[in-house]
Write a structure and sequence with these properties.
- The protein is globular.
- The longest helix is centred in the middle third of the chain and has 17 residues.
- It folds into two domains: 196 residues, Metallo-beta-lactamase, Chain A (4-Layer Sandwich), CATH 3.60.15; 128 residues, Rossmann fold, CATH 3.40.50.
- By secondary structure, the chain is of the alpha/beta class.
- It contains twelve helices and 19 strands.
- A seven-stranded mixed sheet has the order 7-8-9-10-11-18-19. It has a six-stranded mixed sheet with strand order 1-2-3-4-5-6, with helices on one face.
Amino acid sequence: MPLVETTERGLYCRAGDFYVDPWSPVDRALITHSHSDHLRWGSKRYLTAAPNVPVLRARVGPVDVEGLPYGESQTVGGVQVSFHPAGHVLGSAQVRIERGGEVCVVSGDYKTQPDPTCASFEAVRCHHFITEATFALPIYRWPRTADVMQDFDTWWQANAAEGRTSVVCAYALGKAQRVLAELAAEHGPILVHGALQRILPLYEAAGVRLPTTAHASALSVRAAGGKALVIAPPSVLGSAWLRKFGPVSTALCSGWMRVRGTRRRRGVDRGFILSDHADWPGLCESVAATGAEEVWVTHGYTEPFARYLSEERRLNAVPIETRFTGETADEAATEAEDATDVVPAEVAAGEVP
């Protein structure tokens, strides 16, 4: 029997009696990162990478959570577990599970591009690897981040010169902070949506260097005379909140911007190819670096990636059913990346004990 199995509640390790990123409340949950498709409220105990603890608590409230430093091992039930950097967002990790010399790694979401806002991805040798497949098609190859941000800088400069506020849409947890950290220059005030304001202090407390920001309101945007850069979640596109700002130019940061049709469907002026997930070469190289002979493929292009790994790489690769969404093509699928916490509203309001 493999160390991890699929169940109606998600990935389950029977030998350790715990779930990894369960889809519903369980007694013990090991969490790879704090996006809402991987972190659900209501479990009795949480175990995660130490850098993710403040983020997790900010998302689900004062829960029973323990943090393990990256690479440090702990016995859980009948297995050894440890967390290793996934390079996805602040505190993200892969979960390594070992028993009797057999090793399984659950990667969660990951990327291999350098990112100043989180620890870089580290390949972990294993027998069984569970990989995402969000961008698992050969068309998805990311350009150099420096080149993307130079184009971004030119766009902001041009807008500022014409008195148009630059509004860039990026997930509130992870992508928005990366945009801030990678800015090539500042051509006016940087204003952020309230969803970001709640998360930025967590990054600053972790030692991530970010530029000075202020709250984005109709007053602050108009006072900047079209020179401001506003960063907000994708859910603001087409909203009354955005219409208050006067003339704007909109952009979206996403790996899906690799396909022009997605930008047209989202109705934005510019698309910048910036993703918190591995591209096609990154996925292929990461799977190879693990040395795994058995690979489970989850969320995204699972069928074609599993077929490629089986036929071209001669691995025992199979797609598995999941409720993880990764980075969705419409960029507005999950509350975690858009605007709100994952703790149920009635709990946040104190209506449920």
